[in-house]
Design goal:
By secondary structure, this protein is mainly β. It contains one helix and eleven strands, in the order βββββββββββα. Strands 1, 2, 3, 4, 5, 6, 7, 8, 9, 10 and 11 form an eleven-stranded antiparallel sheet that branches. The radius of gyration is 15 Å and the shape is globular.
Length: 149
């Protein structure tokens, strides 16, 4: 039996399902999610935008994650900087050890240390743009600058 993980599955259709899983592995196309109420669900990774591994399934609805990198170093123990812009416009900033463009997915550790997210498994096909290293900083500055204008 694997470790019990609290997860929030974000589908490409914008549907969100919260629950726990013990059998998620990045190299497998399916896993099972046990919602707070209801039967166990079989989840197909290709149907997801991302899978968020969280500290608390309820989160703090009043807290807003800090967007960007907060003048953070180019790399840390979680890898190099990465910025992901999803096809729905959401921006994710963090660090990764595992990104390569030809993989189906990769883990991102959030840049905001106060985030409820511990790590996020991003489905590569759900992103419209992914930049790593200095290009990640440039992408984030452009996006946040465009939003402020």
């Amino acid at each position: 039996m694997g470790e019990l993980n609290r997860v929030v599955a974000h589908y490409l259709t914008h549907k969100i399902v919260k629950g726990t899983t013990t059998d998620f592995f990045p190299n497998r196309p399916i896993f099972h999610l046990v919602p707070a109420s209801g039967p166990t669900m079989e989840i197909r990774c290709k149907d997801l935008k991302a899978l968020f591994f969280v500290r608390d399934l309820n989160g703090n609805h009043r807290r807003r994650d800090v967007r960007g990198f907060l003048n953070a170093p180019a790399d840390n123990m979680h890898g190099k900087k990465i910025a992901v812009r999803f096809k729905d416009g959401e921006l994710l900033c963090g660090y990764t050890l595992t990104f390569t463009p030809d993989r189906e997915g990769f883990f991102v550790f959030p840049a905001d240390p106060g985030s409820n997210n511990q790590r996020i498994y991003v489905i590569t096909a759900s992103a419209s743009e992914i930049k790593a290293g200095p290009a990640a900083d440039a992408m984030v500055q452009k996006i946040l600058g465009d939003e402020a204008a």
